[in-house]
């Protein structure tokens, strides 16, 4: 992926000018450098279109830059930026879908946006602790997918399982993992 | 299979284009699928920023090494140690030996001049003759009069070292003048 525009250019090319101090600019430039590739990967996976993914990342960076003052420094910056990206993706898909008439209750549901504070507060230690509580059959597929970033077919080959079994175990394992993480967060709160 | 069963494969990029397009159209309208895809994405984000501890599985010993450990005795051990020490000594000698082409490093021995040539110095515009500078900072002034020099020249002794009968006193005076500071 070609690099996105520099921070200063993002700030200048925005529809409304963004006031940015030198310190904020440097911090944001580092964020962009660290997470740009991951953002593009998520955008590409969601949109399946390289041009749309680039636009999505660009809009994400602009919105992140605009709201950078509200970002809590010690939390997960990638989770924060991915949340922005996901909300933008949903907005775009919704706008595209508005051309087709839909029931009213669907429109009401679509008005809600996901928010990030829960996920951005989860630490790597909490994730490791939650993984150790999973059963072996679920933990193996979850670790290979989450940390090894293997595809379903690769996991199936590695573990000697059918692909559909991998998909099922992965779905159930991640549901349990999410429940464990939520419980940990509630205890922490 | 419902739409929501496709949330995991969609978030993992496992759906082909034909199946992904209708799910993408379905996604904004379904709160459950939206939430599920978001959770999976965030789980992956947290996983990307997580560093796993190193594997705790013990390393299997190499067969040949264990065989060597079982059969080694004091003799081979001493030989190995002596060889290692000798190798270290040879290495130190080779490294510490001065190279033939190496020149000694000369520090502060280059010809130096006083501060006169520096134009920023206020005294730079005053001419001062180059002369021997003693350690105490005094200069030798050799002020020999023309008369004494003429006497020495007539005697053929410009250095003033010879003491003839005819010009003994003059030579002595001239020599004294030369030696006076």
CA(first)-CA(last) distance of chain A:
40 Å
How many angstroms separate the termini of chain B? 118 Å
E-strand count of chain A: 0
For the biggest sheet of chain B, the summary is: none
Largest interface: A-B, 40 and 36 residues
Total number of strands of chain B: 0
Low-confidence stretches of chain B: 114-118, 174-181
Tell me the overall shape of chain B. Answer: elongated
Structural class of chain B: mainly alpha
This entry's quaternary arrangement is heterodimer
Give a written overview of the molecule:
- The complex is a heterodimer of chains A (189) and B (181).
- Chain A has 189 residues and is an all-alpha fold.
- In chain A, 72% of the residues lie in helices and 0% in strands.
- Chain A has ten helices and no strands.
- Chain B is mostly helical and 181 residues long.
- Chain B has seven helices and no strands.
- Chain B is elongated and about 135 Å long.
- The C terminus of chain B is likely disordered.
- Chains A and B meet through α2, α4, α5, α7 and α10 of A and α1, α2 and α3 of B.
Layout: helices, strands, pairs:
The complex is a heterodimer of chains A (189) and B (181).
Chain A: H1 7-13, H2 22-47, H3 50-66, H4 77-97, H5 104-110, H6 117-120, H7 124-132, H8 136-146, H9 152-159, H10 163-188
Chain B: H1 7-11, H2 17-26, H3 31-48, H4 63-71, H5 74-96, H6 146-155, H7 168-179
Short characterization:
The complex is a heterodimer of chains A (189) and B (181). Chain A is built from ten helices and no strands. By secondary structure, chain A is mainly alpha-helical.
